[in-house]
Amino acid sequence: MATKLKLQPLELLNLGKCQTVSDIVDGMSRCAFGARMLGEVAATLTAWCGERVKPVIIYDGLASTPLGKLLNHQLVKEAEFFSAVLTPEEYEKTPAKARGRMTRAVVVGSFSERHAATLFAREPGTTIYINPYDLCAPGQVKDGFFPDAVFADPNFIMPILTLVLDERLNETKHTVGELVESLGTMPGIGMQVRQAAEVLQQMMKKKGIIRFLTLSGAMTIAQMSLVICEMIDRGMIHSVTSTGALMAHGLVPGLGLKHYKYNPQDDDEKLAKLGLNRVTDVLEPETNFDHIDEIMSAALATFSGEETISPSVLHGALGKYLEDHYPDHPAILLSAYRKKVPVFVPAFTDSELGNDVYCTNKLRELTGKKRIVMDMEKDTAKLLELMTNADAAGIWTFGGGVPRNWTQNVSPLIEIYNNRMKEAAGKGNKFPMRKYGFGIRCCPDRPHFGHLSGCTYEEGMSWRKFHFNMKQAQIQADATQVEPFLVKFIMDLQDAGNL
After folding, report:
1. Which pLDDT band, with edges at 50, 70 and 90, does 425 fall under?
2. Cα→Cα distances 272→3, 6, 268, 490, Å
3. pLDDT value at position 427?
């Protein structure tokens, strides 16, 4: 089906093959979600800034801010990648003939509705918008299609693009360490990423620490599986808690299968009839799940039903199956199996893998076999064991949701358990109290929405989940744009012998 429709396959972001900032951004262009936004805009800008007539920057902020200085001095005066920086008002007052000569423009940050009509009047395909407010010309973006836009904080995106343009047009290489250093002067997400890099260094250097990773959102279908594999393979994390969907999508590359780029010309009714499941700007062929069903059946067949299992036990069986049959295809569960890293999915039934277990059990009932029973408390006990057997704990979160909260809930659980055992006249063993001392959270949700994905570490302190003096960084951004740089930052430090 993919061949018939001439679908474009996506590629896993392989940080092991990336040496520079430009390498990473180039790899992002073949991924999905915010990562692809950044990668495709970087490619477009490289072409525009390489032409004789340079694009113009339209920016309504102060020239004296770090971002204003970056735009005016580095990109215009020093590098000469752009011809000028104009405010939206200055652009609007420019005579129409002169505006017509500004064939390319990058609108950085927000702008007033007073000037929107003039900006939106530009020819399609001539204007890039970079802002965290989803501002762009009407009709420019559609459901699952985001051309010529990066919906993210310019204080993070513009320093990246500055280094990418310097690499590609001036052949000057820039490491992620240089990017992190440049973010030190930037406010907003730029500073948050810089702080996260510093916290990660400290967390990696801490002796006797256990590091938990929690995943939600679309990291695997966004082609970030290898980024997570690097974290496991290099010992950055010792435990994974995920949504079931992330693990299901993450099995696809482990079987040598592909995800594909969504073409907005194919409407969703057509995709449904063709068995092509859309996840925003990615297509997951139903045939992928058919292959996953096969390996799930094989893994489930290893359990007799005599004893209960848990999601982490099942994921271990899947990892073993990949080791035995697909050892050359990288996959999260394969890396986790090799490194003995448990993979927890506390909301297991909310996934394709949960569907497979349900259907398998129905077939077992029809043939007189014992059902496979999931005992979720087995994984709770395992989480308690991991947390209380370590001297210190850190948590690294992509997104929010159940994976984050379940993993953070271990500290209140210890407190409640110990209190109950005390009430029972000491009949049960008490656990040593543990809280998280390090935390890095990358999630775009805001606290005022009132859900757990947006709650801050400060709020969690009131629940005794975190030490009051914990070292932490909270990044309100798309993890597909941020985490590759943070992971590569740690990889480079490890390779240099500094961690």
Report:
1. low
2. 17, 17, 6, 41
3. 67
